[in-house]
Amino acid sequence: HLGLTPQSVHRLGGYKVQGRDEAARQQLLADARAAQSAGASFLVLECVPSELAAQVTAALQIPTIGIGAGPDCDGQILVLHDVLGVASGRRPRFAKDYCGSDRGPRQAIAAYVQEVRQRQFPLPEHAY
Predict the structure, then answer these.
(1) 46, 51, 115, 125: the active-site residue
(2) Which terminus in the chain has less CB density within 10 A, N or C?
(3) Contact call for residues 66 and 52 (beta carbons, < 8 A)
(4) How far from 14 is each of 5, 10, 69, CA to CA, in Å?
(5) Is 46 a catalytic residue?
(6) CB–CB of 84/99 below 8 Å?
(7) Could you report the per-residue pLDDT of 71-97, keeping only the tens digit for each?
(8) pTM
(9) Closest by alpha carbon to 98, among 65, 86, 44?
(10) Domains by residue range for the chain, with CATH
């Protein structure tokens, strides 16, 4: 898990996009390669710029899974509370409420899965 790591959010200065400057980008890329070399079977990239996620994905042999990392990762994650639109507080930029007023939880999850499979999510407005 690279980029924004929720367990370290206070050490990172809050919920902020990671890997914006060149030094941080190079460190994240080096960490991704190190994780792969250490035997990781996949890598989660959270809250990193789309271009960086695409670069990491291209550099690795293992799949990348993005959450707030743009459309070029090999897979996507969205927390259930965000899919259903029931998260408390401000909704992250990368989240999308699939429940709305006309869908139940099952329909919301099905809509999310369909959009990911059809590469309709995430869109540029859901990325950094």
Answers:
(1) 46
(2) N
(3) no
(4) 10, 5, 17
(5) yes
(6) yes
(7) 999 999 999 999 998 888 888 899 999
(8) 0.88
(9) 86
(10) 2-126 (3.20.20.60)
